[in-house]
UniProtKB/TrEMBL annotation:
DNA-binding region extent: 29-48
Domain HTH tetR-type: 6-66
PANTHER family per UniProt: HTH-TYPE TRANSCRIPTIONAL REGULATOR YJDC, TRANSCRIPTIONAL REGULATORY PROTEIN
GO molecular function: DNA binding
Domain of life: Bacteria
Keyword vocabulary terms for this entry: DNA-binding, Transcription, Transcription regulation
Protein name: TetR family transcriptional regulator
Source organism of this protein record: Amycolatopsis keratiniphila subsp. keratiniphila
Gene3D superfamilies: Homeodomain-like, Tetracycline Repressor, domain 2
Pfam families named in the record: TetR_C_13 (PF16925), TetR_N (PF00440)
InterPro entries named among the record's database cross-references: Homeodomain-like_sf (IPR009057), HTH_TetR (IPR001647), Tet_transcr_reg_TetR-rel_C_sf (IPR036271), TetR_C (IPR011075)
Length: 195
């Protein structure tokens, strides 16, 4: 007879994502995970492995459910610089208001908190970074194709700069930066690229 789970693994993973996102992996104890999910330790371990495995799965889930849809929309938006501006407006809004205000981005938080010597964690962080840069590059190339970009600007360098700006917005919003300040910084950066 197979072992029947008396909990929803997806719901447990969603709870773990919120906990790790808000507090970070180092500040989150196993007992907090048990309390937040309502699942006992042995069931957590049997389903997800240890805390490290649950953290890696939480990072993957965050990327697939929160980051990838936003990056896909940016990459597919043919408007160029307005698409980039809208991406950052949405990012600032998400980071400074609503249910997850001042939590930053789980991926940016993972970059900033160190402890990334785990190859599985590094793999997720690199995947996210590559996808973000690719989305930014697609938007920059769309801008260049429609004459919006300043002459001589490298699409690869601009994409790198914008990806780093996104990480900066995520970290500064977590530290309490005001939306207007973040918006001014984004606008100044985009103006450096514009024709």
């Amino acid at each position: 007879m197979s072992d029947v789970k008396h909990f929803d693994p997806d719901a447990v993973l969603d709870s773990a994502v919120r906990l790790f996102w808000r507090q970070g992996v180092d500040s989150t104890g196993v007992q907090e995970i048990v309390t937040a999910t309502g699942v006992n330790r042995s069931s957590l371990y049997a389903t997800f492995g240890g805390k490290r495995d649950l953290y890696v799965e939480s990072l993957r889930r965050y990327v697939s459910q929160r980051s990838e849809p936003v990056m896909r929309r940016l990459a597919e938006d043919a408007r160029g610089l307005p698409a980039i501006s809208d991406f950052f407006a949405g990012l600032i809004s998400a980071r400074c208001s609503g249910e997850y205000a001042r939590w930053g981005c789980m991926i940016s938080n993972a970059h900033a908190n160190g402890g990334n010597d785990d190859p599985d964690v590094r793999e997720v962080l690199q995947l996210h970074h590559d996808q973000l840069r690719a989305a930014m590059r697609a938007a920059v190339e769309n801008a260049a194709a429609t004459g919006q970009m300043r002459r001589g600007v490298s699409a690869a360098a601009a994409a790198d700069m914008l990806a780093l700006l996104a990480y900066g917005v995520n970290l500064r919003s977590r530290a309490g930066a005001e939306p207007d300040t973040l918006t001014e910084t984004v606008s100044a950066t985009i103006s450096l690229l514009a024709a």
